[in-house]
Amino acid sequence: MPPVLINFAYLVASALFIIGLKGLSHPRTAAHGNLLGTTGMLIAVVVTVLDRQIVSYEVILAGLVVGAAIGAVLAIRIQMTAMPQMVALLNGFGGGASLLVAGAALYETLETGQAFAMQSIVATALSGLIGAVTFCGSLVAFGKLQELISGNAISFPGQHLLSALVALSSVALAVMVVLQPENTFYYWALVGVASLLGVLATIGIGGADMPVVISLLNSYSGIAAAATGFVLQNNMLIIAGSLVGASGIILTQIMCKAMNRSLANVLFGGLGQAPSVTAKADDVYAGKVKATSAEEIAMLLENAQRVVVVPGYGLAVSQAQHAVRTLANLLQARGVTVEYGIHPVAGRMPGHMNVLLAEADVPYDALKDMDEINPTFAQTDVAIVIGANDVVNPVARTDPKSPIAGMPILDVDQARTVVVVKRSLSPGFAGIPNPLFAADNTLMFFSDGKKAVNDIIAAVKDTA
Questions:
Q1: Which of 209, 390, 413, 455 is catalytic?
Q2: Which of 266, 355, 392, 442 is the most exposed place for a label (fewest CB within 10 A)?
């Protein structure tokens, strides 16, 4: 293909990526934005294959078939509750692909006897460094989310010192790759040491910070891809990687703001390393927790005019989103206003609750972010909290020594009545008790999320 047509196609694909990202910023236009983005990627892939026949088309086709088959199986078999793990793996695969492609380009340059361009060799070092950190960091994040390893922050004596030494070693090896690109040992040593850095950087982060970690690793994968674009001198890869890297950083900043914490605090002092001076559960809950039943909740809902549902990870685990939608439909048929309060870091990945509720066809207009829903809780008759814990813990406002001090929360405690659906009084990822559970206006419904909502539905129907 003529270079002018290739560059024009890349320009069209880039525009579709940017417009698609804009569409993804709002639930109502997300599906259309996703379609535009995938169309742009299709154009980019087709044009690249036509422009650069590095291997035979048969090999490329075989790779497409195998990759598509694996992707289809994963898409069908992976439950919505496991979507954070899936996203973590995809981030890791992106980083792994970047470092392998950069390494292959390094060997190709050596075999053809070409001179090493400074831009390309610096980009190769960056791709190996960032790609390896992304790949292994994402595997650790996957292990934590899948509960293959502890979801708590894992620490040991001298951990920060070791991480600093490994980071310095990675930088030193990256410099050696630039100075002596013909010695491929340095590149693979860089990949190995950077992989260890990725593990060390992620194991010390607790499960409550996983939304931040996933968005950050997503940014890393984009930066690695952009670096590989400079290695291959492919404008499309540079643009696409830059868009992913920038959007990931922006999302990471949003997540940190929602937790009132800096990125450095997330990376080097997560919630799993909370201060030891916290209230004991016995002191918070003793003699104050009031258990309730589906029938009592149905009577509350019978007289309610406004109900706000606050979803959390417990809703995802129990797959209660469809039951919640059924309950909302039942209440709305009786003239009750039902809305959903969404915390930015509820669940285990950015937008986790939005994805779950969208799967159940909950109207977009009913999903209210934290800033919009908080001023209305004082006018809410019943707030139903399903599986959320730290994001509704009032200690964030009252205890400056708490590990979640200053974190913006959903002010459900200001509702007239709060119903908390939870299996037990076990703490959230922050590892601290929640005074909301013992508040005068709170009723605890101890049950699995889906079963609890179905029981409430049955009780509401009985009151008709």
A1: 390
A2: 355
pLDDT score at 293: 93
Q: In Å, how far are 103, 145, 176, 462 from 189, measured between CA atoms?
A: 12, 29, 10, 68
> How many helices (H) does the chain have, and how many strands (E)?
18, 6
Catalytic-residue membership of 361: no
Phi, then psi, of 218 in degrees rounded to 5? -60, -40
Question: In this predicted model, which residue has the larger pLDDT, 379 or 151?
Answer: 379
**Residue 57 pLDDT class (50, 70, 90 cuts):** confident
Cβ(340)–Cβ(309) below 8 Å = yes
Instruction: Tokens 């709002």: give the residue.
Output: 26
> 8: which 2 tokens?
């024009």
The model's pLDDT over 88-105, given as tens digits with 9 standing for 90+, comes to 888 899 999 999 999 999
pTM score, whole prediction: 0.77
Where along the chain do its domains lie? 1-77, 82-273, 281-462
- Residue 274 has which token pair? 């909370």
Residue 448's nearest CA partner among 316, 329, 273, 253 is: 316
